[in-house]
Amino acid sequence: MTLEDDARDYHRRPPAGKVEIATTKPTNTQRDLSLAYSPGVAAPCLDIAEDETAAYEYTAKGNLVGVVSNGSAVLGLGDIGAQASKPVMEGKGVLFKRFADIDVFDVEFDHDDPQAFVESVAAMEPTFGGINLEDIRAPECFEIEESLRDRMDIPVFHDDQHGTAIISGAALLNAADIADKELSSLNVTFSGAGAAATATARFYVSLGIPHENITLCDIDGVLSESRAEAGELDEYAEPFARGVDDGDLEDAIEGADVLVGLSVGGIVSQEMVRSMADNPIIFAMANPDPEIAYEDAKDARDDTVIMATGRSDYPNQVNNVLGFPFIFRGALDVRATEINEEMKRAAAEALANLARQDVPDAVVKAYGDGPLQFGPDYLIPKPLDQRVLYEVTPAVAEAAMESGAARRERDLDDYREELEARLGKSREMMRVVLNKAATNPKRVVLAEGEDEKMIRAASQLVEEGIAEPILVGRTKEILRTAEDLGLDFDPTIADPESGEWNHYVDHLYERRQRKGLTRTEAAELVRSDSNYFASVMVAMDDADAMLTGLTHHYPSALRPPLQIIGTADDADYAAGVYMLTFRNRVIFCADATVNLDPDENVLAEVTKHTAELARRFNVDPRAALLSYSDFGSVTNEGTRKPRDAVEQLHADPAVDFPVDGEMQADTALVEEMLTDTYDFAELDDPANVLVFPNLEAGNIGYKLLQRLGGAEAIGPMLVGMDKPVHVLQRGDEVKDIVNLAGVAVVDAQEE
């Protein structure tokens, strides 16, 4: 099948289209329905009648954008009409929801008259929190947007104009820096003089490009004053008319620092590129074929050609999805009356700054595992980089508040956390821990300190003030890798091959001499095994916590800290716990990594350790010890152990959380089964701590929940140790290292 056939099948597959409406409140009972509609709905209606701003509290208006078009200029398709444009507008709604959790109604008006279009859109102001104008031909699009901005008290944004301007503006800020050129000295030539080109030119002026340094060209050549005097230019292009001789694109490109292509493919030659100034910047954004092919532009000269296109198969894709969802998100959340120049500049500057930061592993993998590092081939973030939501959006909201466009003030720190929470429950939960960690950072030794991910994680830990990382490894190797990664931080390094570590050897020998370890062997382990080195460092209080496991099998990574640090005074066993986050639920699963076949004593202790861990995440624990039996329905050795463990816990006066078992998994998680079938159970609400009967069940269970239930997993977190130690999974990402380091810091704070 062709791409077109696949697309047709994709859209017609039941239910047809790409969007649906879902309820956000319960509708299960008669009372629910009476609250949702008659008679209860009258109360909020009357409140809104008294104060129209109450609509933001009682309705979805504050998270609802209208994507509005007449289908007169659909990208790549032209004037296809209102009805035919609907799949495009639905698709725009999908992007709003996917990237910024904004709901959309797409509205297609069969209007050729701009004034009729304006009247129809303006009449919908009570419905929407903002209006995204889409695929409207020029010059009508300018008139429509200006009229609606004047008439409406909510944000109105024509993405075809401003989206490209903002994203390419972010790329220009970084490209100029890389090329070592000042914005005020750049000469910029535009191929194209339509809506996107003129809006982009205006935006570049607001960024600092002198108006007189910008030359626009259309199909008839340079926009000159003589053409303006002859009446050839519309009122939106006329301000960019230059007092130069009439000429064509080839004339305008000569000597230019920047070429911005918003026209048609294949009209720029290598010879034209060679005529540009040193280290030229070329944004060839015609789709699907750029004004000059990426390879041709790069090969045209020997110096650095900084190139961007509108295509995803080349570096530096100028993609509007980096802008509109996050600009509207910020505007909606402060109830802005408009999207002004200050907000647009804030978005561009935040995008430019984000491109300079270390790129998460998940983003690198999504784009083929190629290097993504600030430079000529990485000017702007990738669309799938989730950080755009909580880096760009707060900048837009702040600009709205500072410029007077906002009707609601937001604390930016709290707002950033709210945005992170939109990305998933795990981020919300981890933010609790990371905030705690940042109040009193502790020393965390990273045993595999030469690994690139560990070095990147250390940089983030320092930057965010979460921990004081110590990298174990060869100093020269760590510094070289940090430099290659472009990380601007001064790492703390413990190099086992240099320095005086005899006291570490002595400590290890004393701990293990009656376990068959000679002093010579102890010296060799300290010098050559970073896990033993890091374990001794923590044991001797030279560090407060330890992370390892990224490049080791779990048992081999766990062995040294168990031997050297050991379990806590009140603990005989360690255990591995995963926190699984669902959309509206958090579950702690134990034990999934350590104890193969625990008896009742181990199960009871693991339950207490896991409950303590849950409290570090501000979760009140409710524990269930799982089996395939419910409260004695089956009696054998397997069901007896969790039953006996529960009896121990009930008899322990230190246990101050509800716990019960043995019980089946659905009994533990379904409220009706607990309250109806087993009303005697100690749990009044579903369990959030699940203790599995053995390692096999625990490992299988958490992975099924993760994969089939769509949960995000954080862990394994090691509980029961004398000092904080966490063993990563092989292949974990930088964010996993940072998260577990945060948990380790909070553990150390508790110590």
TrEMBL record:
SMART domains given in the database record: malic, Malic_M
Domain Malic enzyme N-terminal: 16-149
Domain Malic enzyme NAD-binding: residue ranges: 161-401
Keyword terms, alphabetized: Metal-binding, Multifunctional enzyme, Oxidoreductase
InterPro entries in the record: Aminoacid_DH-like_N_sf, Malate_Decarboxylase, Malic_N_dom, Malic_N_dom_sf, Malic_NAD-bd, Malic_NAD-bd_bact_type, ME_PTA, NAD(P)-bd_dom_sf
Cofactor: Mn(2+); Mg(2+)
Pfam families: malic (PF00390), Malic_M (PF03949), PTA_PTB (PF01515)
Stored CDD domains: NAD_bind_2_malic_enz
Gene Ontology biological-process entries: malate metabolic process
Keyword Oxidoreductase applies: yes
Similarity remark: In the N-terminal section; belongs to the malic enzymes family. In the C-terminal section; belongs to the phosphate acetyltransferase and butyryltransferase family.
Protein name: NADP-dependent malic enzyme
Gene Ontology molecular functions: acyltransferase activity; malic enzyme activity; metal ion binding; NAD binding; oxidoreductase activity, acting on the CH-OH group of donors, NAD or NADP as acceptor
Origin superkingdom: Archaea
Annotated source species: Haloferax gibbonsii (strain ATCC 33959 / DSM 4427 / JCM 8863 / NBRC 102184 / NCIMB 2188 / Ma 2.38)
